[in-house]
């Protein structure tokens, strides 16, 4: 196909122009590079930590019959799986070729929230199973007055050591990455926060059950922890799906973007303005009214400058539609809401 070389050349020229334009925006490229480096570092360190924690907890689980420790081990396995999912999606987002440029014309940033959806579902499914197992053990204790063995569930020293390590490390990771601009890293930070609560409770319930000779405390701990994790990940799943579905952006972001558009001298009015999520990113659509006698060249220049200025405000794509009358029909035929 003779058109392909021309298209590739045009794309290369367009990409060079885009990068030159970005370089004129103070701090724009540096900020993007810093976010990417921070995301990769968070994912890599989380991956290494989870591998070590799984190894230690796996050995501890083999020497204990505590359902709380089993739940903690399952949580660590899922932590590793979630980190792998985010790692794969981040690599997929970063990879670019002539093929991906045409296949994904607006980039692949939506891969990241899709990864969050996948491991949210995995978390919910796995802890639903832990919840069922805990309920079954509690019912058995209530019938027989005993746990899985002759004695109440006990935590081995190795299990306690790795749980304490988990609490310290995960607390540090949560404090470090809770405000990351990346939804994947924020999900890992939330998971680290959950791990702190989870492992503290996983220590308290079996230890209290052993000291008080109350075998029911261990499965009760498993039930409480499972319900807590299910609640947290339902909220994360709901929030991520809402953004992927195109929910409206925050009022402050909308007010700031709308104010910017109205500051242009040539703009008589803004007949419509929408700011909505598309995954982690925000899309802006503005219907801008210019004087009816505005020359085509001037109208084009105003539209282009407004578009670029909006995209500096952490907006992935801005679509500016020009108009000459405030009461013209809506810019789209598709139904709202």
UniProtKB/TrEMBL annotation:
Subcellular location: Membrane
Official protein name in the record: Cation efflux protein transmembrane domain-containing protein
GO molecular function terms attached to this record: monoatomic cation transmembrane transporter activity
Biological process annotations from GO: inorganic ion homeostasis; intracellular monoatomic cation homeostasis
Annotated TM spans: 41-63, 69-93, 114-135, 155-177
Keyword vocabulary terms for this entry: Membrane, Transmembrane, Transmembrane helix, Transport
Main location per the UniProt record: membrane
Ranges of residues in domain Cation efflux protein transmembrane: 45-244
One Gene Ontology CC term in the entry: membrane
Annotated membrane topology: Multi-pass membrane protein
Origin superkingdom: Eukaryota
